[in-house]
TrEMBL record:
Subcellular location: Cell membrane
Name of this chain's protein: ABC transmembrane type-1 domain-containing protein
Organism superkingdom: Bacteria
A GO cellular component annotation in the UniProt record: plasma membrane
Residue intervals of the ABC transmembrane type-1 domain: 16-86
Membrane topology: Multi-pass membrane protein
Organism of provenance: Parabacteroides distasonis
Positions of transmembrane segments: 20-43, 55-79
Keyword Transmembrane set for record: yes
Alphabetized UniProt keyword annotations: Cell membrane, Membrane, Transmembrane, Transmembrane helix, Transport
SUPFAM superfamilies: MetI-like
Amino acid sequence: MSEFWNQWGNVVIEGLGQTLVMVFVALGLSIVIGIPLGVLLVIARPGGVNSNLPLYSILNSIINVLRSLPFIILLFLILPVTKLIM
């Protein structure tokens, strides 16, 4: 174990730092973009504080498409595995 850390310790620590930076940047962007969009959706929904059906419909459609993107990416990544199984 000591030999591993002597050889790869700096690389692991550097990679961990880069990973944490990417996680916190993504988290920050998600908060800065997601919370205002969520509040806007709640305000604009039918029966909301400031009901605005066209704005709500457009935002809701865009958010639903964006929400499904990770699953679509995963679907394409799994396709080669399913070809191997069948």
